[in-house]
Amino acid sequence: MTASHVGSRPAGQRGARGIAPIAAAHRMPGFIAALLHRLSGVALAVFLPMHFIALGTALGGAGDLESFLAITHWWPVKLAEWGLVSALAVHMALGLRVLAIEWFAFRGSTAGVVSGCVAAGLAVGLLFLLSGW
Predict the structure, then answer these.
(1) What is the C-alpha separation between 97 and 6, in angstroms, rounded?
(2) Distance from C-alpha of 99 to C-alpha of 95, rounded to nearest angstrom
(3) Assessment of whether the complete model's pTM goes beyond 0.85
C-alpha cells in the first residue's frame, strides 16, 4: 500500500453504507483527549477576534462598551458563552493532563483521567451558565 492509500480500505471491507469504520486507534482515550484538546483550542482561537473587538470598544468609553455588551443578554449569546467557558475549562484540564504526562511520567488510567477532565470542564461551564441566569 502506498502512502496515498493509508487508511483507505477496499470496497469489500467497507461498512454497510460504503464508509470505512473508524480505526481502532481513533477510539482510544488518548486520541480522543488529543482531539478534544485541539478542538477546544481552535474554539478559543476563533473567539479571540470578538475579545479584541470588546477590548477596542472599551477604549471608546463606558457607554460604547455597555452598548457592545448589551448583546450578551440574548440567550444564543449566553449559550455561546457557555460553550466558550466549557471549551476553556476542558482545554485547561486536558493541558494539565499533558503536563502531568510529560513532567511526572503519569500514566494512570487514561480513560478515567480524560473523563474527569471533560466532566470538570462541563461542570465549570454549567456553573457559569447557572450563575448568569
Answers:
(1) 30
(2) 6
(3) no
The three cell numbers of residue 122 are 462541563
Tens of pLDDT, residue by residue over 16-68, are 565 666 676 667 778 888 888 999 999 999 889 888 988 898 898 888 889 88
C-beta separation of 128 from 80 below 8 A: no
In contact, 33 and 95? CB cutoff 8 Å: no
CATH architecture of 28-131: Up-down Bundle (1.20)
Q: Provide the residue count of the chain.
A: 133
Q: Are the beta carbons of 36 and 47 closer than 8 angstroms? A: no
Chain-centroid distance of CA 39 in Å reads: 4
Q: Which residues of 35-67 are buried (b: 16+ CB within 10 A; e: fewer)?
A: ebbeebbebeeebeeeeeeeeebeeeeeeebee
